[in-house]
Amino acid sequence: MEEFSLSGKSILVTGASSGIGRKAAVLISRAGGLVFITGRNAKRLDETFQQLHHPMEALRNMSIVADLTNESEMDTLIDHLPTLHGIVHCAGIVGPLPAKFITQADINRMFGVNYHVPVNLTGKLLRKKLLADGASILFMSSIATKNPYFGGALYSGSKAALEAYSKTLALELVSKGIRSNCILAGLVDTPMIEHISEKNMQEEALNRYLKRYPLGIGRPEDVANTILFFLSDASKWITGTSLIMGGE
Ligand SMILES: NC(=O)c1ccc[n+]([C@@H]2O[C@H](COP(=O)([O-])OP(=O)(O)OC[C@H]3O[C@@H](n4cnc5c(N)ncnc54)[C@H](OP(=O)(O)O)[C@@H]3O)[C@@H](O)[C@H]2O)c1
Predict the structure, then answer these.
(1) In ligand 1, which atom is closest to the CA atom of 41?
(2) Three-class SS of residue 135?
(3) What is the average per-residue pLDDT within 172-181?
(4) What is the value of pTM for the model shown?
(5) Can you tell me the distance from the alpha carbon of 68 to that of 73, in angstroms, rounded to the nearest whole number?
């Protein structure tokens, strides 16, 4: 089905050195898209690059190492990009911290990666006219914005802010047919959730936590397949949404 193909589309994936971003990059390339991947860890980013399908065209997949909280590294990344048909903002961090211990430094760190990076990167790409009409922008939020968890105030706050940004962006870009959507994923089995395990949690607490996910814990491909749909023309009538995946 042609509407689901990503053939001829150039897509930027941040956070592609791990987890959901890695799987999204691999599946986008298999669906015919050209992928521009970025992450901080050069070795793991290269592992993702090796898994991509590399087509014969002159313009090929590209891998660019960057810490996106560093403005000049973000600018260098942008210098390598062609006109894009999609952005998948997967770079993100988590870090449980009870509200009474939150300091300004913690706020800066969490919002720096989870909010400032996608907002700043999107703005720069728009000002440089690097987004094609009809492009699709995806932000990774979390079900935690709907269902609070102990120690999640900063993480949930940064993701809720991102959702609000995405909805406003959808409104502002609708005249160009550029779409903006959020995925609110439940628990997905990636390096990000390593702290949630039998090793680190008491069995009863772990079981109670897992009950919040009636379909079980997600796999990176569960989210990546949805990302593919949002990037494709099959979803061209959807913008300004926040899709909940996997949780109650
Ligand atoms: N896993 C879940 O249960 C879950 C649920 C809901 C939403 N999400 C969201 O989905 C997204 C992907 O999560 P994941 O589980 O795939 O996480 P992950 O495996 O920990 O990957 C996070 C990615 O973000 C990159 N990153 C972090 N800080 C960065 C920075 N300063 N500059 C550039 N890149 C940076 C990491 O790069 P390096 O590794 O190279 O440093 C890595 O590629 C995140 O936004 C997360 O909040 C995850």
Answers:
(1) 40
(2) strand
(3) 98
(4) 0.97
(5) 6
Query: CB burial class (10 A; 0-12, 13-18, 19+) of residue 65?
Result: middle
The finding on whether 116 has its CB within 6 A of some atom of ligand 1 is no
Rounded to the nearest angstrom, the distance between the alpha carbon of 182 and the centre of ligand 1 is 15
Alpha-carbon distance of 68 to 204, in angstroms, equals 38
Closest approach atom of ligand 1 to CA 40: 40
**Residue 84 DSSP SS3:** strand
CATH class of 2-245: alpha beta
246 Cβ inside 6 Å of ligand 1? no
DSSP letter, residue 188: B
Angle, vertex CA 86, rays to CA 39 and CA 138, nearest 5:
75
What residue spans define the domains of the chain? 2-245
Dihedral (Cα; 224, 227, 233, 238), 10-degree rounding = 150
Q: 54 by DSSP, 3-state: which?
A: coil
pLDDT tens-digit profile of 205-246? Answer: 777 777 888 899 999 999 999 999 999 999 999 999 999 999
* Beta carbon of 64 within 6 Å of any ligand 1 atom: no
For helices 220-231 and 19-30, give the axis angle rounded to 10 degrees. 50
